[in-house]
Amino acid sequence: HRSQSGRQLAKTQHESKDAYAALFSRIPAPDVLVTDGLRGAESACTEVWPGARIQRCLVHVQRNTRADLTSKPRLQAGRELKKLSDRLTKIHDAEAAARWGGALNAWHIRWRDFINERTWAEDDPSNPKAARQEWWWTHQELRRCYRRLEKLFRQGRLFAFLEHELTEGGPVARTTNRLEGGVNSPLKHVLLDHHGLPEEHMKRACEWVCYMKSGSPDPASSIRPEHWKPAGPPATETKDDAGNGTPGYGTGIDWNDFHTHVAWKSND
C-alpha cells in the first residue's frame, strides 16, 4: 500500500496532528507515507501507523532549501549546499544515495566552523534580535538548511523509495506530485472557477472532485428520482434536398426569432 498526503487531504481548517490522526484512522496502514513535511501528518503517521515508513517529498525538500538559501546563494557554502539539494531528484539507486550522503558529510566537515559562528547582541545592537536574544547563529538559514538535510538523511526519509523491502510491491513515489497535480490542482481550479461559493458549497464541490477521482465513481447514483426530469421531445428536422434520408437543418430555432426588420436610416 502507498499513501500520499498533501494540503487538501484533511478536510479541516487546520492540519493538526489530531485532524490527520482522525483521517488516518479510517485508512488501512500503508507501507510508506509520502508527505510534504507537515509535522501534523508525520506525527499522526507515527502514532496511528507505527509500522509505516515516511518518505519526504524531495521536491518539497528542494523548495525548503530555496526558501532558506534563495535560488542564487551569496555565500560559497550556500552555493555548494544548494547544489547538493538540487541533486536529490536525480538519484535513482542506493549507490548514488550513499555517495550523496558522503558528499553532505564532507560539506559539513568543510564548513562546520562556519555554520557554528555566533553573533552577540552587544556586537550588533542595531539588529532587532538584540532586543530579545543574547546571541544568535550568524548563518542561521544555512545552518537550518544543513540540519534539515542531515536529519532527513539520518532518519532514512530522503531515500526510503530505494529500500528493497518497500519496492518489492512496486515502485515507491519520491514526491507528492501525483497528488498535487492529480487532486490538489483540480480542487484549486474548481474553487477558482466557482469563486464566491459559500463554505458549505465549497466543501461539497471539493468532495465531488475527490469522488470522481475514486476507483469506480458512479455520478448517476447521486441523482435523486424527484430531481430528475426526462428530456423533452427532440426538435423536428427537415430532410435534405438529395432525398437520401440524411438529416438536414433542424427547425427548432426560427431565424426570425433573432432578427427583426429595421428601417434603414439615412444620414441625409
What does this protein look like?
The chain is mostly helical and 268 residues long. Among the domains are: 69-152, no CATH class; 180-213, no CATH class. 43% of the residues lie in helices and 9% in strands. The protein has helices spanning 17-24, 39-48, 58-69, 76-86, 94-115, 140-155, 164-167, 177-193, 199-212; strands spanning 2-4, 32-35, 53-56, 118-120, 135-137, 237-239, 247-250. The strands form three sheets. A three-stranded parallel β-sheet has the order 1-2-3. α5 packs antiparallel against α6 (140-155).
- Spans of at least 5 consecutive residues whose pLDDT stays below 50 are 5-12
Number of strands: 7
Helix content: 40-55%
Radius of gyration: 30 Å
Approximate shape: elongated
Major sheet summary line: 3 strands, parallel
Distance between the termini: 83 Å
Report the average pLDDT across residues.
85
The chain-level structural class is mainly alpha
Instruction: Enumerate the strands of the largest sheet in spatial order, edge to edge or round the barrel.
Output: 1-2-3
